[in-house]
Amino acid sequence: MAQKDYLKEISEIKSIMNKSSRFISLSGLSGILAGIYALIGAAIAIYILGNYNNSYSGMSLIPISYLEYILITIALIVLINSVLTAFILSAKKAKKSGEKLWDATSKRLLINFVIPLFTGGVFCLVLYQNNLIGLIAPSTLIFYGLACLNASKYTLGDIRYLGILNILLGLIATQYIGYGLYFWALGFGVFHIIYGTVMYNKYDKK
Can you say whether residue 39 is alpha, beta or left, with left for phi > 0 and alpha for psi between -120 and 50 degrees? Predict the structure, then answer.
């Protein structure tokens, strides 16, 4: 009995240390929904591009600049919905477990996640400015992966694997310019759904 109590105390101490140094209220369900949003957005974008390429024997009535704005709008809608969903579900999970959503740990998580993400966003704007459109999709995957990897030190370590997979996928995508939307669908869609499912079954389903 003494040994069992000792092991239980160690487990409790470890849990307290994790709670004080890591933000553990990330919702697995938000990852699943983010993946679904990404797949829907990619499907709409692919459909629009397909119509653009096939209409009137290659002569589309939609200007290319307007088409780019449509695709950017779709990406922003997916991003905003994903962020809002993550915030709402994480807040709900934090409240349920008696944790604070906004504290020193969550601040560190956010800062370490945003720095690579913001850098990647600026870099993608430079690519767009120089008409290097084909490299934008691989770059978003790489920088998002770096953001996940950088933030993994301050939250559940499983997000580290999502980051590594997206970095590798982004590097592969640089060799298949023109298929960016499909790589987006895989990285932001399928990978997120798998990651979210694992997280949900591992941490949320109690």
Answer: alpha
Rg (C-alpha) for the chain, rounded Å, is 20
**Is 134 domain-assigned?**
yes
pLDDT at 153: 85
CA distances from 123 to 73, 118, 195 (A): 18, 9, 26
Domain that holds residue 77: 29-204
The total number of structural domains that make up the chain? 1
By the 8 A CB rule, do 117 and 143 touch?
Answer: yes
Q: Name the nearest CA neighbour of 161 among 145, 173, 184.
A: 145
* 10, part of any domain: no
pLDDT digits (tens, 9 = 90+) for 51-105: 766 554 444 444 556 777 888 899 899 999 998 998 888 888 877 777 777 777 7
The tens digit of pLDDT for each residue in 8-24 reads 554 544 444 444 445 55
